[in-house]
Write a structure and sequence with these properties.
This protein is α+β, with helices and mostly antiparallel strands and about 425 residues long. It has 15 helices and 15 strands. The strands form two sheets. Strands 1, 2, 3, 4, 7, 8, 9, 10, 11, 12, 13, 14 and 15 form a 13-stranded mixed sheet that branches. A hairpin with a 2-residue loop joins strand 5 and strand 6. Helix 4 packs antiparallel against helix 11. The chain is globular, with a radius of gyration of 23 Å. The N terminus and C terminus are likely disordered.
């Protein structure tokens, strides 16, 4: 029967793994937490382990409560000698599995998914714990809890990534996990040191663009930083006024002014994390950069600029001003987030090799999903390789992005 006393529940989850047959207690054992009270019982140990913002307990609970597609938490806990040793933060949700050939989206297939958060491995990152996590995921898929499991952007050298790619059966494993470069920028104490760490051409280009922007707009240009919960309702329409003009909106990604987004930003503000930077010209927003300051790292979430100002490089001007502000406020690094962009490669001075790994249920639907995604990825790789050899890939990307944001779009922040 369920434990109703919260103190008893906390003790039970922290110290006692699931009941085992009589005999010596196992070195490692597992429990899967599927309710919010169970998560709260782990708060002290959860917060004692450092991790990424996306696996922060409060950020995760807000996601659970505001995401309409999310059914429940699915947090796997590993015990070592009866004491909690690590956890993997995940959730069960109803999704549509989308695939693309280039920028062409194919019809999505409905599926029930186990989604594990970026940086969701907290605690002891041992190979043994990684093995137990993957075995638990495979068991849940075998029990028809979900059709697919997604482990978001694992570091390719990590034991968890290796186990997720090799332990599942051949028909249910991910055969085309795509390596991606994740850029970060270690920040020095001031902007002068930032410039010193850049190449001569990049340094000259940034200064030239900034001087040009100031020479044209002068005192009309102003950068504002929004940090308080009361600022969110002011911040949101400012961002939306710019975001709706970007090519990302044409792709159906990037910032969206939704109630879920407002709740998320209010939480980040209440926790002291929110950093919402807006560049205004004559009080009109022309560029934005939104992120969170978490454990000394600025996690970049959304940035964009009004393409009608594109020739004056407002995005680049804002980026340099934000970096200067972050340096002066003791932020140690910028996490530029997922995806490739020229500015990330130019500013990033540290790189992580990551890949998103999928594991499929051993069911007709799971195997079919694997086949469809495998064929799609293989087709994309063949076409991309051919286009790269002919040097047409950047041209096609630029054309397609311009088409998506026709009348308002520019391709990408320089």
């Amino acid at each position: 029967s369920p434990v109703k006393d919260p103190h008893t529940l906390k003790s039970a989850i922290l110290e006692c793994p699931p009941a085992e047959p009589s005999g010596p207690a196992p070195v490692l054992s597992l429990r899967v937490l599927r309710t919010l009270p169970e998560l709260e019982s782990l708060r002290d140990v959860w917060t004692s382990w450092k991790g990424h913002r996306d696996s922060d307990i409060d950020f995760f609970i807000e996601l659970l409560e505001s995401g309409q597609e999310i059914l429940r938490p699915h947090v796997i806990v590993v015990y070592r000698h009866g004491r909690i040793d690590a956890l993997l933060v995940g959730r069960l949700e109803n999704t549509r599995i989308h695939s693309k050939v280039g920028y062409l989206s194919l019809p999505g297939l409905p599926a029930r998914s186990l989604v594990f958060s970026y940086g969701g491995f907290r605690g002891n990152p041992s190979p043994e714990n990684s093995t137990e996590f993957v075995k638990s995921i495979v068991a849940s898929l075998k029990d028809n809890e979900a059709d697919i499991a997604l482990l978001d952007h694992l570091q390719m050298e990590s034991p968890l990534c290796h186990r997720a790619l090799t332990l599942p059966a051949f028909a249910t494993r991910d055969h085309f996990a795509k390596p991606e470069t994740h850029y970060l920028m270690a920040l020095p104490e001031n902007m002068a040191a930032v410039y010193k760490g850049l190449s001569n051409n990049h340094r000259w280009e940034l200064r030239r663009k900034s001087k040009r922007f100031v020479s044209i707009y002068g005192d009309k240009a102003k950068v504002r930083c929004f940090r308080e919960a009361a600022d969110v309702d002011v911040l949101m329409p400012e961002i939306e006024a710019v975001a709706r003009k970007t090519y990302q909106r044409g792709l159906g990604v990037g910032f969206q002014d939704t109630e879920q987004m407002r709740r998320r930003l209010r939480l980040c503000a209440a926790k002291g994390w929110l950093r919402g930077y807006i560049l205004q010209v004559s009080n009109v927003p022309v560029a934005f950069w939104i992120g969170t300051a978490y454990n000394g790292s600025f996690c970049s979430d959304y940035l964009g600029f009004d393409p009608s100002y594109g020739e004056y490089s407002p995005g680049t001007f804002l980026l340099t001003k934000v970096i200067e502000d972050l340096c002066s406020n003791g932020i140690a690094e910028i996490d530029f987030g997922f995806g490739d962009a020229r500015y990330k490669g130019r500013f990033g001075n540290r790189q992580l090799a990551e890949t998103t790994v999928r594991i499929f249920a051993p069911s007709p639907k799971g195997v079919t999903l694997n086949l469809i995604l495998t064929l799609t990825v293989a087709t994309n790789r063949v076409f991309n390789t051919a286009l790269e050899r002919t040097r047409l890939l950047p041209i096609i990307k630029r054309y397609w992005r311009g088409r998506l944001a026709r009348g308002s779009g520019r391709q990408q922040l320089d």
